[in-house]
Structures are given as C-alpha cells and as structure tokens.
C-alpha cells in the first residue's frame, strides 16, 4: 500500500472525508503528496473520483467496495497501535459496533471455526496461486 500517508488518507476516508481540501486540512499533508496518494488509491481501486463541481472541475474521493473491505485491516492496525504505542490515559479512538452498541477492537479469526488467529497458531503454506519460484523459496525456509 505504500507509506504512512496512504494509510492516513484511507483512515480519513473512513471518517467520512471526501474532498481534497478536507484531506489536506485534516492531515497537514503537502498538496503534491496528497495528489500522488489519491491517484495511487484510485488507481488501485480503493477510492473512486466523483465530480461534484463543473467550473472549476472538482472531485470527491469515495471509498469503493474494495476500499470499504480494507476496514478490518485498518481496525487491526488501530488495535495494535493501542496496545503497543499508547502512552496516554487511554486509547485515542474507540470503535463502537453499531450492532450491539459496545466499544470493541478488531480480532482476526479463523473463517472456519472462529478461533483467534495468532502467529503461533498458524502454519503458512503455499496456495494454488503461488508461482513456482515463490513456492520453492517458501519450502526452503
């Protein structure tokens, strides 16, 4: 995905930010850097540009289905940061589940049994789409 700016632009998108000036104001990012990140995210299919003004032409940047599907990744990063980087009186951001109303954190779980996935509890093995050279490299580790 790139660098920290890419994740921060996505985070702002999940907050509801859609316009260039709003991204820039929220992030304090240089215009050329923001332009590059928005182009990268639209090119990758996570955001789409939607024109909202004709003269001058202006666009909003809206999360696509692919972009919205990135939310669990961002939630996991938030959880990790809260656990390992927090130094204040509490977490800076709460994720409240609309379904039950509780503040929650991300948990990565097995799609079959629902058990939590951890590095110690998972074996990595080649899948059917892995190229042969990568398959050989993974087998050698």
UniProtKB/TrEMBL annotation:
Residues 1-89 form the HTH hxlR-type domain. It comes from the Bacteria. Keywords: DNA-binding, Transcription, Transcription regulation. This is HxlR family transcriptional regulator. GO terms for molecular function: DNA binding. InterPro entries: HTH_HxlR (IPR002577), WH-like_DNA-bd_sf (IPR036388), WH_DNA-bd_sf (IPR036390). Pfam families: HxlR. Transmembrane segments: none annotated. The keyword DNA-binding applies. The keyword Chaperone does not apply.
